[in-house]
Amino acid sequence: FFFPQVLLLACAEDLECVPGFQQKVFYIEKPFEFTEDQLVLNLKFDDCKGNNKLNFEVSNPDFMVGLDGNLVALKNVSEVGRALFVHARSEHAEDMAEIFILEPNEKRGALKEILKLEGNLGIPRQKRAILATPILIPENQRPPFPRLVGKVIRSEGTEGVKFRLSGKGVDQDPKGIFRINEMNGDVSVTRTLDREAIANYELEVEVVDMNGKTMDGPVRLDILVIDQNDNRPMFKEGPYVGHVMEGSATGTTVMRMAAFDADDASTDNALLRYNILKQTPTKPSPNMFYIDPEKGDIVTVVSPALLDRETMESPKYELVIEAKDMGGMDVGLTGTATATILIDDKNDHPPEFTRKEFQATVKEGVTGVIVNLTVGDRDDPATGAWRAVYSIINGNPGQSFEIHTNPQTNEGMLSVVKPLDYEISAFHTLLIKVENEDPLIPDIAYGPSSTATVQITVEDVNEGPVFHPNPMAVTKQENIPIGSVVLTVNATDPDTLQHQTIRYSVYKDPAGWLEINPTNGTVGTTAVLDRESPFVQNNVYTALFLAIDSGNPPATGTGTLHITLEDVNDNVPSLYPTLAKVCDDAKDLRVVVLGASDKDLHPNTDPFKFELSKQSGPEKLWRINRLNNTHAQVILLQNLKKANYNIPISVTDSGKPPLTNTTELRLQVCTCKKSKMDCSATDALHISLTLILLSLLSLFCKSF
After folding, report:
1. Domain check: are 585 and 670 in the same one?
2. Do 493 and 424 share a structural domain?
3. Distance from C-alpha of 660 to C-alpha of 83, rounded to nearest angstrom
4. What is the model's pLDDT at position 117?
5. Average pLDDT over residues 500-524
6. Which domain holds residue 322?
7. Using CA atoms, how far apart are residues 133 and 587, in angstroms rounded to an integer?
């Protein structure tokens, strides 16, 4: 818990009993938060008659005062205002105490005001009777213990009274370190003290009578622990690694070493001085670096010429650094640490090809890496001063070559990215330049060794024939006669110096519609071309052909043929749906909307013409009305009995010549009750059958 410092404005030592609070005004520093059950301060109330029936009331309900006078928070509280007021009442007296809460930045400025108010509290003061001067004790004292370290004096004598000591180190942890002689006020220490553990103790001493009643005090007794040089300097922030660029000027700061000493920083016990004990390696100079004895800064002391990474035995130096307290005197304690200094590379060496000319051989038509170009560079391989960047500066007009750096070996990988043609050029000469990722330092330049020539020989191979054009495209009408010529393909052999012959064959013909003359490449039909076939996509049929030369072994080339098929009116329209249902007592006699579709393309499709086949009998039962180009509606002219009826309907497309299709629409007349439709065929009356019987009867009568 955080206990705010209490600034006492009125002291009640040596006063006659005055009923009420012994101190009426308090100033406390506001903590970040008053936590639950936290002791804020102790209030002393005395009605001089035993405090019978004493109770307290606090202005803020989040706080309470117990019978022992302890003001505590009942829960975690962050905002309490500027003041708290505590009212106390007993059988014989009542009083009010004020607790003012200061912001942290108000504390210093408020002290003067507090001191001004101290004399105006209305509480008479008397001279203190206890004199407790601070006691100084060296740490690390040796036995025997207890050891007398100081004395508390009472001006009015010690007869009939005794001294009482309390606080951290007496009756609070760590307990039992200090004690006081009750009779004469002698203060003793009982064990060795460690200033680095606890540097000072704030105790309270009071004088009580033989019954334990306080007569004087309490007053503060400060015990200060005197530091001894018992802690060695320590380097806590390792590992210590510094970097310096090669060729740096003399006096360049590399890094700073900082040690810690737990002793009193205001004494020589923690006054440190630094020194280099050892340097490894010792070349090119045993004194490459210097350390500022007071600051711990490590700087270079050799000339820039000696700070050359490429001529050093190692680019890494290790320095053993000593820190000594007591200002570096011989009696001081020491601590050591190792500082690692890395000499960083700068780009002071250009890359150089290991040869002036490289040779490569590649077969025509092949891509990939054909040769690795090697270079040397004396700079640090882990840096951009070593990593190579290659470029082709001459001999690559068609951009057939590319060069990239192998990140592991730093070699230049020269590749063919566009197939070479032996018949066009059997030899190529490239001029290659190499540079570093990082720029060279100003006084270094790339020389002739940073360029090289690559001689490339192209080997002839038997290349496959090439179709012209590829792909090939032609437009034909579907349903052309079998044996019709589609086109004649043309393929040539790139190997013009070999004078080879070419033969043709079908490679892929998904529908089996085509053939090709193996000698002259004429493509003809072996079946009817059907635009509506599933092998036709977006009116285009695709087939592949091979051209094979007479080489050994023979080489082949593939050609693609796209045939765009024009539509003819070769598909009758279809009607949908072919089944409809209606209630025998329906009020709406619009039975069904029919639609028509056609696999052909416009203008061989809609507008469609819808017609009913001729109805016989004394009266017509239905009619058909055209709704738009693709739909018509069947309407009953009267309610019909429950039965199944077949209605023949013809639909005609707009092709030239037009095509007609007749489809029977099955109409079910059902019984409908309570939103349920019963279409069971109890009266299987078929109009189409009735019409047939009437027709037969008519023919029979005519024969007589």
Report:
1. yes
2. no
3. 105
4. 37
5. 95
6. 234-344
7. 120
